[in-house]
Structures are given as structure tokens and as C-alpha cells.
């Protein structure tokens, strides 16, 4: 069984950038212990001669024919754009150097 410790809760809180008070940590610890117990309960099921389920349906890699269809012109594509230079769509800079 996986041990759910206070250190594990603290590590998970740090990774998820969350903070918990002591009461919340206790509740989370209890919930996680119950989840682990539930999942470990599955180890009691006899899966001998049971093939693993790889796909929900028997259909795999169903491809459709690649059909070339018309597209819209650049002018039509830029018609409803808030900012453009006539060729490209202008968007605010989001990456800072």
C-alpha cells in the first residue's frame, strides 16, 4: 500500500502550487487514503484469462479519404480580424525575453 504521509501532501501541494491549512491537509490525507484503498481493492479481482482492454471499440485507425476542398481568400479571412497589416493577423506579444 502506498503510504500517504504529511510530506507527500506537502509535496503535492507544492507541485500544484496550492496551500492548505492543517484541517485541509487532514481531509486531503483521508480522501487520498480512501482512493488508494479503493484502487488497491482491484488487486483482489482474479484477472486470469482476461485480455487487457486496449481500445474501447474494435475500430482502430479509421481514416477517411483526403478530399481537397476550396478555401477562403486571404481578404475574406482577414475581413473580421480586429488587427491586421493586410497580410497577417496581428496579435499582442505574449512571450517576454
From TrEMBL:
It comes from Arachidicoccus rhizosphaerae. InterPro entries: Asp/Glu-ADT_sf_sub_c, GatC. Keywords: ATP-binding, Ligase, Nucleotide-binding, Protein biosynthesis, Transferase. Allows the formation of correctly charged Asn-tRNA(Asn) or Gln-tRNA(Gln) through the transamidation of misacylated Asp-tRNA(Asn) or Glu-tRNA(Gln) in organisms which lack either or both of asparaginyl-tRNA or glutaminyl-tRNA synthetases. The reaction takes place in the presence of glutamine and ATP through an activated phospho-Asp-tRNA(Asn) or phospho-Glu-tRNA(Gln). GO terms for biological process: glutaminyl-tRNAGln biosynthesis via transamidation; regulation of translational fidelity; translation. Its EC number is 6.3.5.-. The gene is gatC. Belongs to the GatC family. Signal peptide: none annotated. It holds the Pfam family GatC. HAMAP family: GatC (MF_00122). It catalyses: L-aspartyl-tRNA(Asn) + L-glutamine + ATP + H2O = L-asparaginyl-tRNA(Asn) + L-glutamate + ADP + phosphate + 2 H(+); L-glutamyl-tRNA(Gln) + L-glutamine + ATP + H2O = L-glutaminyl-tRNA(Gln) + L-glutamate + ADP + phosphate + H(+). This is Aspartyl/glutamyl-tRNA(Asn/Gln) amidotransferase subunit C. GO terms for molecular function: asparaginyl-tRNA synthase (glutamine-hydrolyzing) activity; ATP binding; glutaminyl-tRNA synthase (glutamine-hydrolyzing) activity; transferase activity. Heterotrimer of A, B and C subunits.
Amino acid at each position: 500500500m502506498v503510504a500517504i504521509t504529511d510530506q507527500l501532501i506537502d509535496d503535492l501541494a507544492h507541485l500544484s502550487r496550492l496551500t492548505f491549512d492543517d484541517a485541509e491537509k487532514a481531509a486531503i490525507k483521508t480522501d487520498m487514503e480512501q482512493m488508494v484503498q479503493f484502487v488497491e481493492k482491484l488487486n483482489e479481482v482474479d484477472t486470469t484469462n482476461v485480455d487487457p482492454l486496449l481500445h474501447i471499440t474494435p475500430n482502430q485507425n479509421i481514416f477517411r479519404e483526403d478530399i481537397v476542398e476550396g478555401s477562403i481568400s486571404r481578404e475574406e479571412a482577414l475581413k473580421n480580424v480586429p488587427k491586421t497589416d493586410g497580410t497577417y493577423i496581428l496579435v499582442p506579444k505574449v512571450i517576454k525575453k
